[in-house]
User: Fold these one by one.
Assistant:
Number 1:
Amino acid sequence: MPITAVHTDPEALTLTVIADFTVPLARLWDAYADPRQIERFWGPPGYPATFLRHDVAPGGRSQYRMTGPDGDAHGGYWEWTAVDAPHSFEVRDGFAGEDGTPNTELPSMRMVFSFVETALGSRVTTVTHFGSLAELEQLQQMGMEDGMRAAMAQIDDVVADLTSFAAGQGTELQRLGDTRARVSRIVRGSVEQVWQAHTDPALLRRWQLGPDGWSMPVCEVSTEVGARLRSEWQSDDSGERFGFAGEVVEAVRPTRFVTTERMISPQDPEGLESPQTLNELTLTPVEGGTLVAYVITYPDAEIREQILATGMVDGMESGFARLEAEVLAG
C-alpha cells in the first residue's frame, strides 16, 4: 500500500495524501504524465479510467471517464494551470458529462501534485484545495478519500512495470470506446525536435515516406488554425498516387496539434467521398524521449476497424523508426 498519510484540514479546506514508492522520481512522474499509465490507476478498482485527452502543459486539458462494471460512466476533467517537470504540477479537477462538458452542479477542486526524491525512492504529495467547508464535506460524503486510497493502491503495479512503457517498445494501438483509437510511441528526441519533425515539410519528407519505393512529392503543412493541409505519396515505379487532405483545428507549440484528415486520390482529389477523422497529436516529455500520442476519432466503429486493418499502425512504426534513425540521430 503506497499511501503513508492522509490528513484533512477543515480550517485550510484541504485534503492531503502522501504516497511513497521504491522507484526513481522520473519513473513516478511518468506514471502521471503518460495517459497509458495514469488510466491504470486513476479510477478505483472496478472503475477503470480512460483518458481521451491528457495535455501535460500549462493551459492544457485532460478529459477522462471511469466506467463501472455495469457500464455506468463517470466523467472528469483537468485544467492544467502549472507544470514544473518532474517536480510538480497543478490542475483544476472537476466532474464532467459524457461529452467532457464540465458538470457545474458539482464542485471543482484545485489539486497540487508534488514529487520529491526520498532515501528509498520517491514520494508524491497530493493536496486538494476546496472552495468551502460545505464542498469538502460533500465530496467526503461522496467517498472521495476512500476512492483516492483505492485508486492509488494500484500505482505500485504500474511503476513496477519497467518494460511496457519504456522507449524501444514500438508503436502501440489502443481502442478507446467505440469510435476512437490511441496510437502512441516514445520517440528518442526532445519535444521541440519532434514537434519540428511533424510541422516542417522538409523534415516530413525525410521520414514520413510511406511504403518502400514511394516518394512524397506534395507536403503542404501549416500550424495556422484553419490552414489547409495536403500530403501526397507516389510510387516511383508505377506512378500510382494517394494522399491525405485536411485542415488545422488547433496548434499549441510544442505540445498539441489537432487536424482533420480525409483520404484523397486522383479519382477523388478533395477526398469528398472519404470519411473524415479528427487527429489529436500530443507530445509529452518522458524518460527516454518524447511520448507521441495520436488520439484519432472516426465517424463510427466500422470505419475505424476498416482503417486500422489497412496496416496503418505498422506504417506509422516504420515512419517513427525512420524519424529516429534519419532525422533525430545525432
Number 2:
Amino acid sequence: MCSDPASRARAMKAVEAIFERYHLISRSQSFNGFDLHTMNNLRLLDASEKGTSTYEFLIDEQYTNLNGVMHGGAAGVIFDMCTTTALGPLARKGYWDFLGGVTRTLGLSYLRAVPVGTKVRLHSEVIQVGKTMAMIRGKMSSLDGKIVYCTCEHHKVAVPTQPAHLDFKVEWDQLWEKDSDVSGALTAKGGKAKL
C-alpha cells in the first residue's frame, strides 16, 4: 500500500476513471462483450502513482472449463484488463489515456489451477512506459498471497483513443486539464513536465 494518502487517493481515482468511462461507453452502445463481466466484477483494493493496481476477483463459473477450474483464455481477459488499468495513474491527456493502447503480446504462465468459486488477488505493476510502448507484469494469487496461480507479462503499443470515447467525460478529465496547465507552465519556465 502507498504510504502517502494523497498520492494513493489520486492513483485510485485515476484507475476508477478508467472504469467510469468504460461503463459509460459500454452502456451507450448496449455492449455485452466478454470483458464486460470482468470490468463489472473487479474490486479495486489499491493503486499507486508508480503504476500499480491491486484487485480482488471471484473466479465464477463463467471463467471456468469443464474441469471446474479457470480456463486459460479467461485468465488472458482478466489479466488484459487488470494490467492495462495499472497505466491509469501514469496517463495524461494524449498519453496512454483511457484503455492504454492495444496489446502487442500477452504472455501467461500458469502455475496452479484455480478452482471455480475461488477469490483471487490480482496485482499489476508497470515495469516500463514510454511514448509508444509499455510493459506491465501481473500476478494472480490467493488472497493471502501464499499461492501464485499464474503470472503475465503484457506489452502494449500506444494508439490514439477513439475520439468518440473521450466524448464521455468523467471527473478525472478535469484533473488532466489541470495537470496539462501545470506541465505547460513549468516547461515554459524551464522546468520539467511530469511526463
